[in-house]
Structures are given as C-alpha cells and as structure tokens.
Amino acid sequence: MAWVKSEYAGELAVLSTWLVALAPWSASVFEVSGLTVVALRFLPFRFQFIFGATLPNERPFLWAWQVADFQSAAELSLAGDLGFAALVAFAFPFALSLYYYFEEDRVAAALPADPVRLFGGLLGLVALLTLAATALFFRYFPGTTIPLGAAVAAIFAYLLLTTDRT
User: Fold this and answer.
1) What is the distance between the alpha carbons of residues 81 and 75, in angstroms, rounded to a whole number?
2) Inter-CA distances, 9 with 5, 47, 114, 141, 166, Å
C-alpha cells in the first residue's frame, strides 16, 4: 500500500524537508538542585532555558557550530559535532527543495536519479546523524532526551524512499 500517490510524491518531498527544518531534532529536560533545564536542539541552533536561577556565563542561544565547544564532556562535544554535521548535510536538500518547489520539471530532468528518492536518502542521512547525536545526549546528558525531529526525519525518509514512482 502506498502512503502517497506518485503524482504527489514531489510535493511530499518538499513538505517533508521543510518540516524537518522546523522541528527540533531533540529536546532534553533535567532537574538538579532546584533548577530545571530545557534544551531544544534545532538543526541551525540550540535554545537552552534554565528555570530557577540566573547562572554566570549562561548561553541560552547557540548556533550549531558553537554547541560542541560549549559542552564539557567529550561525548557531548561529539554529539554537538554530529548535530552540526546534520546541519551541513541538510543544507543541500533544503536548498534543493526551494528550487524544486518552483521548478519541479526542470530539477527532475537535470538530476540523474529520482528527486523524491534523493530527498529520501538525504533526509535519511540527516536522521542518522541526529539520531546518533541524540543517543549520545540520551546516554551522557542528565535527564530525559527525546528525538523529536530525528524521528520525523527518519519517518519521512522511509516514506520518500518507499513511494511507488511508477
């Protein structure tokens, strides 16, 4: 059974890419000594909210390339690097989605592969990178980490890779 009709697969590829851009790829919550910390990690940046106190050198907003330097543990620094790698990997499908939205026929003719499968493979790569980073946060970051957008990217990658394009 197909999840989407073949003639709408291109629109699903573009919409999927944009939704992955908007969704935080992970969210973490933990409490320590009366403080509650909530971290939302989007592909280009991270928001971290600390409730209960104002800390010196607090950095509530970091760009993706700054996160690894801000982490104290090597494993969390690696998670930050993986998040940045996911952003770099995502840049191509996002740019392609903007062009594909306006020039679907031209892009389909210019690419050697099916654009929908290409989007699916690239979103799959983003999903793998963000899921690996989330696994590191899950293991080494105190509290609970949930792979929100990482799971969304994986689901959309699966849907795009398995769409019947005949």
Assistant:
1) 10
2) 6, 33, 11, 38, 11
| pTM as predicted | 0.89
Q: Which two tokens stand for residue 140?
A: 């080494």
Angle at 99 between CA 67 and CA 64, to 5 degrees: 0
**What's the pLDDT tens digit per position in 150-159?**
999 999 999 9
The count of residues in the chain is 166
Q: Are 24 and 42 in contact (CB under 8 A)?
A: yes
Residue 113's alpha-carbon distances to 17, 27, 108, 132, in angstroms, are 18, 35, 8, 27
Separation of alpha carbons 122 and 17, rounded Å = 9
> In angstroms, rounded to a whole number, what is the distance separating the alpha carbons of residues 114 and 117?
5
53 contacts: CB under 8 Å, gap ≥ 6: 34, 35
Burial class (CB in 10 A: 0-12, 13-18, 19+), 64: buried
Interval 49-93: pLDDT, tens: 888 877 777 788 999 888 878 776 777 788 889 999 999 999 999
